[in-house]
Design goal:
By secondary structure, the chain is mainly α. It is 47% helix and 6% strand. The protein has helices spanning 5-12, 22-31, 38-52; strands at 19-20, 63-64. A two-stranded antiparallel ribbon has the order 1-2. The longest helix is centred in the middle third of the chain and has 15 residues, at 38-52.
Length: 70
């Protein structure tokens, strides 16, 4: 069964903050049998961030959740 992207995102976002951080992404990958180094996970997040544009918040990179607009 294929899950819609929002459901997949929600399943990975363990702390329900609306973003996926390195720990959550690494845990999700491990759950799929893909054990990645911290550097590999951070590189994945950096690639997503490059696609999304720059950040000026100073916060660690994370993947933002789907829009909650109605």
């Amino acid at each position: 069964q294929l899950w819609p992207a929002a459901q997949v995102f929600k399943a990975i976002d363990a702390d329900n903050r609306g973003s996926i951080d390195a720990a959550e992404l690494g845990g999700a990958m491990a759950g799929l049998g893909l054990v990645l180094s911290q550097t590999e996970v951070e590189n994945m997040l950096a690639e997503v961030a490059r696609s999304a544009g720059p950040t000026t918040s100073g916060e660690p990179r994370s993947i933002a959740g789907p829009s909650r607009a109605t």
